[in-house]
């Protein structure tokens, strides 16, 4: 229990840090939020009214406390451009980003484990070399390039998958679900391709370490079948450090999702960020970051607690 | 001369030279740097409107033309400048900050906890959305991009440097330096930094490749310098005009350029690491 409490406290600290850093960045950087709401040839009177409307005329400390208070009520401020609460804008987008990132993560793990095992059990062989080199290459890929390549190959040229959007609007019932999955394939695959390398390489290293342990020699000496030794004995121990990588890669995953959603016009938070950049809608950008940071903190918390339950040694 | 007579540096270099992957990567990087420096001699700066729009690659336009008739080859050549300049300057800045913070955390024990917490917190946040926010606020320019990327890349360097420096601080020669009355600054400069620098070598390369990707990502989202070309900007224009899905050449060539730069830096660091690890020679 104490372990979960500590992790929870750390998550809250991270979140507070994210919120505070963004608040002060937004207020102190040259990009004057007032200039962003206001037209340059607007009268001074109107400018002051706008400032007051957005609460930008009060002392910085007061604005900060107010921002924190509003945040606790789930209020991220008003969008400069759309005159609707940022929370409303982002909450309709959040489910799509969650669908995309979670499905990408699941597919990555499902593909990554057998590939890691394959490389580790054939360490130094040519299969291993190919997997390693591919893994390093995959980590050097630029997400939009991968997205465009898949879009062109599987979407435009072969015509197997739709190249934009998240669902056909006229589909209903089961058809809508099918259409959703159909639209999900390309963006999800793009994310999987950039994530997979890291997982496979980590999986490979930890599994090679695990295969050198005494209990593996013992199991082999006892005459346990090689397949059972790898999959039932060594893999279980190798999976634990890989869980940590999953946590560390969350940031990359979120960044990748922003770029992928932009390419495929996928209506998630990332696409909202792209649109907000074009319109200089700072509250949306700020809110999107806070929301994504919160998602990463929650996901990290889940990984940490799961790790603690699986491996009591790390409960410190 | 036998292997034992060589200095560690010479041994690293001779091991490195025997790795074809490392040598090829080095050559590619040199070539890209040459293109970046000589861009004005290779192609005219792409601007204005051309008559041939969305032409596929041909003898006249090696990489084809975009939706307003500009030559994609010229864009990629000029993009090499900005992409490399931002990548290198951002990583140099990140390394300097990371070195300072990492070494201070390891040497001045009282600073370790607060700096460690700062690094941990920064590493657990999704960086790209944060960079987007800051770059949008600061206004797009080459300098903004370099500073913003450096600002959010140093924690990784600091972590690597700190763990390396922590192994050096308890060594007898550091205590000896303290006993003879050396100032902290002198000890850090003379004893800590030389021990940390080889690790930083790998870190520099990796930070550069990450910085190149970050620059491409930000430019792709429309946060690039509007007055210059970078590889991400070319992709951004293709995305905006919709030629992304119809004209493969507008995206393929800048993508290949990004891949070449990032992959060769990554492979170079792998080769350097292998060469430095003398145990694997036997």
TrEMBL record, chain B:
This entry carries the following GO cellular component terms, namely: plasma membrane
UniProt keyword Disulfide bond, yes or no: no
**InterPro entries reported for this sequence:** BP-dependent_transpt_permease, MetI-like, MetI-like_sf, OppC_N
| Compartments where found | Cell membrane
What UniProt keywords are attached to this protein's entry? Cell membrane, Membrane, Transmembrane, Transmembrane helix, Transport
- Which positions carry the signal peptide feature in this UniProt record? none
Q: Name the PROSITE patterns on file.
A: ABC_TM1
- Alphabetically, which GO biological process terms does the record hold? transmembrane transport
Query: Where mainly found?
Result: membrane
Kindly give the Pfam families that the UniProt entry links to this protein.
BPD_transp_1, OppC_N
What residue intervals traverse the membrane?
21-43, 84-108, 160-180, 192-213, 252-272
The similarity comment for this entry is:
Belongs to the binding-protein-dependent transport system permease family.
Which protein is depicted? ABC transporter permease subunit
Organism per entry:
Nonomuraea phyllanthi
